[in-house]
Specification:
434 Repressor (Amino-terminal Domain); 5 helices
């Protein structure tokens, strides 16, 4: 499930929910819903996070296990 990847990436970068929420210009409460899988993440937020983490959107969505961006 892609929500687990959001949490894993955040934790791997030693970030908390508030820090990531600030990055995507939303509240910690809303980001928490993404992180726990209670709310679908908007494409705009997904793209910001993929760029920030240096992974593809497909990786976050679980469409691939390859973290590398295709250039």
């Amino acid at each position: 499930m892609y929500f687990q990847r959001l949490r894993d990436l955040r934790e791997d970068h030693d970030m908390n929910q508030t820090q990531i929420a600030n990055l995507i210009n939303t509240s910690q409460t809303v980001y928490s819903r993404y992180d726990r899988g209670f709310q679908t993440i908007p494409v705009e937020h997904l793209m910001i996070l993929a760029d920030f983490y240096g992974v593809s959107v497909d990786y976050i969505l679980g469409r691939t296990n390859n973290m590398q961006l295709h250039q």
